[in-house]
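> run fold Tetratricopeptide repeat-containing protein
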Amino acid sequence: MMKRFLGKLFFYFVLFVFVLFMRLNNYPLTLTLGIALTVSLIGYMILFVYPLVLEKRVERVEDFLLSQKHKPGIYIHYVLANRLDDEAKTTMDKLMRKYKHSKALATYKAAYGLYCKDMAAIGEAVSHIRYPDYRKYYETVLLLEEGKSAQAQEHLQSIKKRWMRSALLAEMERRAGDIEAAVKHASEAVDASRGAQRYLLQREYERTLPQAVERVS
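> ok
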């Protein structure tokens, strides 16, 4: 986390020096602002978007998530991945206070419901989930819990995200007792994921299917 803080500090210092140089040398204000905004956007992508969405190295993702304790929508990935029950509940309470609209909360509620193995909570949230793949993912989870494996298998075929399909197939095979197939699909799920989602999957499989993580590593 200290490296991340120092990185941010260095970035903003360089940006300040650059703007100061441009102004002292009488460059047009519009040019100065345009370049500064472009550099700020690039910095935001590198410091925030990349570790959250694109990073493959879980230790880097973990450092990023730990630095986001003040942002419950991001920090919840860390507490769920590491099964920190008290912090998970506290973080969900913060999200409930922050977001009043059911659609904004739906994915968080479904994820927390899965974490708590509360299928009723997932069922309540699933119809409000905005994004089709996430909605179908949790619908498939419910079908699996109801023992409807054939319907679950059919339902997941419409999911576009590869990591979701592979994660669901891994769970189906694990329940069926075919550990080798479960490991294969789990490793595919980790390999297809990035950022916070990769972190969640890898931490989960370290507990339940460690062979899958060894294959990816």
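The chain has 13 helices and no strands.
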